[in-house]
Design a protein that fits this description.
- With about 300 residues, the protein is α+β, with helices and mostly antiparallel strands.
- The protein has 2 domains: about 180 residues, Sandwich (Jelly Rolls); about 120 residues, Homeodomain-like (Arc Repressor Mutant, subunit A).
- It is about 45% helix and about 15% strand.
- The protein has 11 helices and 11 strands.
- The strands form 3 sheets. It has a 6-stranded antiparallel sheet with strand order 3-4-10-5-8-11, with helices on one face. Strands 7-6-9 form a 3-stranded antiparallel sheet.
- Helix 2 runs antiparallel to helix 3 and helix 4 packs across helix 6.
- It is globular.
- The chain starts with a strand and ends in a 5-residue tail after the last helix.
- The C terminus is likely disordered.
């Protein structure tokens, strides 16, 4: 079937090339997701991810910032970026998720790839194209879908090339991006999402309920109640979870001492860090790092933050 008369979609269809952590990895997942399986907290990956939303309405929370989404919006997520999709109540929503690692390019093309990857580093990670620009971008994904239907000895190479074309089109048409975020929330909900964004930008600092209440001109009691209503978490737990998530990325990507990572992420002591890590992930920081080296940690990364 065609979504919005533009993108080919087949429910539960998958295209897989390679595995996470390999030099070339592609996973295209055409499927539906519903409100009942919304993640409780934002997660991250060690690979790049594209989400093409294919239904009427949903939301995406990225580093604490809420983004409204509509059909054919493209979400560009770089590795370790905290994010989650928030699907509305009602019928399941269609979407295409693409997780990938592009093989290393020959030296002459490395500069070109830097331009392409820059689409993941903008202030707004959502791309919304209209008319011929939308058609030109999404037809590259249709080409990949049809290539996968009749696999041969060159299919993987062809899919890799078409996907680079897809990313290139987003870069070339980036000034045609029509996305403008106008979340349809009441004033207090908007303020709460401003606060979550602030937490993600300042989690290394000394944050408290009283400090944030003063910073955003709201009473501590009212903030505590409304924060729990909107996010599902207490303010203190949200701050700690954000710190733990960022600590995870450092545990996986660096050899820094765990105590150093604890302080880098805003914890006042190692014991506080260890308690928070165990509380939310049910594993110690040292065990998490050890398991990551034996490639067992991805299951921790991709599952919900709290069971």
């Amino acid at each position: 079937m065609l979504i919005d008369n533009t993108l080919v979609y087949s429910q539960e269809y998958k295209i897989e090339i390679g595995r996470p952590g390999k030099n070339m990895y592609y996973f295209f997942d055409y499927d539906e997701r519903s409100y009942s399986i919304n993640m409780e907290f934002q997660h991250f990956h060690q690979f790049y991810e594209i989400c093409v939303f294919l239904d009427e309405k949903a939301g995406h929370l990225i580093d604490g910032v809420w983004y409204d989404m509509r059909c054919c919006d493209i979400v560009a997520l770089r590795p370790t970026l905290l994010h989650k999709t928030a699907y509305p109540e009602g019928a399941p929503c269609k979407r295409l998720i693409i997780q990938f690692t592009i093989p290393t390019m020959i030296s002459q093309l490395e500069g070109c790839m830097k331009y392409i990857y820059s689409i993941f580093d903008g202030d707004c990670p959502i791309y919304r194209f209209e008319g011929r620009y939308k058609k030109a971008v999404l037809e590259k994904l249709n080409d990949i879908y049809y290539l996968s239907q009749t696999p041969n000895e060159l299919t993987e190479l062809a899919i890799n090339n078409k996907f680079i074309e897809f990313l290139s089109m987003i870069y070339l048409y980036r000034d045609k991006n029509m996305y403008s975020n106008h979340a349809d929330f009441d004033n207090i909900t908007n303020k709460i999402y401003n606060i979550t964004a602030y937490i993600h930008g300042h989690f290394t600092e000394d944050l408290s309920l009283e400090f944030i209440a003063k910073e955003f001109y709201i009473s501590s009691y009212y903030l505590s109640h409304q924060f729990k209503r909107v996010t599902g978490f207490t303010l203190t737990d949200y701050i700690q979870m954000t710190r733990v998530r960022n600590a995870q990325t450092l545990l996986l990507s660096t050899d820094n001492p765990i105590t150093e990572i604890a302080f880098q992420c805003g914890f006042s002591s190692f014991s506080q860090f260890n308690r928070a890590f165990n509380k939310f992930l049910h594993v110690s920081p040292s065990s998490f790092r050890k398991e990551s080296k034996t490639q067992q940690a991805p299951s921790l990364l991709l599952t919900n933050f709290i069971d």
